[in-house]
Amino acid sequence: MRYVPIQHVKAESFLAKPLINDNGHILLKAGAQLNESLIQKIQRMGFLALYIKDEHSQHEIEDVIEAEVRQKATKSLQAFLEGSIDTRKMSTNDMKNLQNKEEEVKSVVKAIIDDLFLQKDIVMNMVDIKKVDDYTYGHCVNVMLLSVMVGIGANMNKQQLYDLAIGSLMHDVGKLFIPKEILLKPSGLTNDEYIAIQQHTTKGFEWLKNYSEFSAPARSVSLQHHERVDGRGYPNGLKEKDIHIYSKITSITDVYDALTSDRYYRRALPAKEAIEYILGGGGQYFSIDLTRIFAKKVNPYPLGTLVRINGGMVGVVEVINNENFQRPIVKILQEKGVKVTPWLCDLYKERNLVIESIIFSV
Ligand SMILES: [Fe+2]
């Protein structure tokens, strides 16, 4: 399967991953064959890219955790946060219920860490397909997963990973206190609206004070994840040494996940370009050391990516080289614009060949 922006999806291809709406309901099953009207319908629903299976790309792409675990994490986070926004009129029973929801979030986070801790070399090979411009809990879960992977790369122990996971999972909780019409405004924010959005950091931190069983550094991620190492972030303009490592990691994974998500005003960036943006921001926005660890955890050319190689070759990524993402094995489909009998080209051995660009159709 491969990731394809919707305008490049061909009518005869098959959906490789189910389309799921914000409530976790399946809109279209994996394996469904697409046609023009279905593609247009999907686009109108707000999906700007899909995972498809076609004659070029038959392999599966493994997520770092099971789809069911990802879904459980998303749902339990949503249930907990939305249930806990206003606790003033709650009965004892409601409070008990809420406590159970909180326990569920904690236990799913612990299970994810136990799982990822056993596979320390695991790499993020895919992006989550979401609808455009939705503030979804899926984003929070993604940011948590990426953050934990970076934490593992930074040799954190399980307790630290747990704190990092909770902090990154809850990083944007303050957005629940910002009016939706401001949050979802595509462009042209007034100065006041911009300030209102920035307040999601302080509001989230304030709210998390009710949850002292989460450690102070975990809670501070909500406050610090828009700080930048050069001191030009918000809300406090902290410099690198004053920003907690959990927040520094989350600032990277938050931006990465936003860049690789579709927006009404721009298509999601391919992983490769988003990674380059993150690396380019090292020392200014992000901690340089952490951007380097991050880049080892996210593959810019996931399986199934169609690539152009110098010398006029076009092919599809067949086997990932985990030591060097730039040099996978590519199944060559075309040479100088002419279709050829597919053959495997190992870029690790062919040192004079390099991937020039990602393409979406041949
Ligand atoms: Fe944020």
Overall tally of structural domains: 3
* CATH classification class of the largest domain: Mainly Alpha
Helix content: 40-55%
The percent range for strand residues is 5-15%
Low-confidence stretches: none
Which word captures the global form?
Answer: globular
Give the terminus-to-terminus CA distance.
Answer: 15 Å
Could you say what the CATH architecture of the largest domain is?
Orthogonal Bundle
The small-molecule ligands in this entry are: fe (ii) ion
Number of helices: 12
Protein name: HD-GYP domain-containing protein (C-di-GMP phosphodiesterase class II)
Organism: Alkaliphilus hydrothermalis
Domain HD-GYP: 114-310
What is the fold's blueprint, element by element?
Elements: E1 2-5, E2 14-15, E3 19-20, E4 26-28, H1 36-44, E5 49-53, H2 67-84, H3 92-117, H4 137-153, H5 158-169, H6 180-183, H7 191-198, H8 200-208, H9 216-224, H10 245-259, H11 271-280, H12 288-297, E6 306-309, E7 313-319, E8 329-335, E9 338-346, E10 355-359
Antiparallel strand pairs: 1-5, 2-5, 3-4, 6-7, 6-10, 7-8, 8-9
Fe (ii) ion (FE2) binds next to loops.
Provide a quick synopsis of the model.
This is HD-GYP domain-containing protein (C-di-GMP phosphodiesterase class II). The protein is of the alpha+beta class.
Describe the structure.
This is HD-GYP domain-containing protein (C-di-GMP phosphodiesterase class II). It comes from Alkaliphilus hydrothermalis. The protein is α+β, with helices and mostly antiparallel strands and 362 residues long. The chain folds into three domains: 52 residues, Molybdopterin biosynthesis moea protein, domain 2 (Alpha-Beta Complex); 231 residues, Hypothetical protein af1432; 54 residues, no CATH class. The chain contains twelve helices and ten strands. Strands 9-8-7-6-10 form a five-stranded antiparallel β-sheet, with no helix packed on it. Strand 3 and strand 4 form a beta hairpin. The model has no long low-confidence stretch (mean pLDDT 89). The site of fe (ii) ion has 4 residues, from loops.
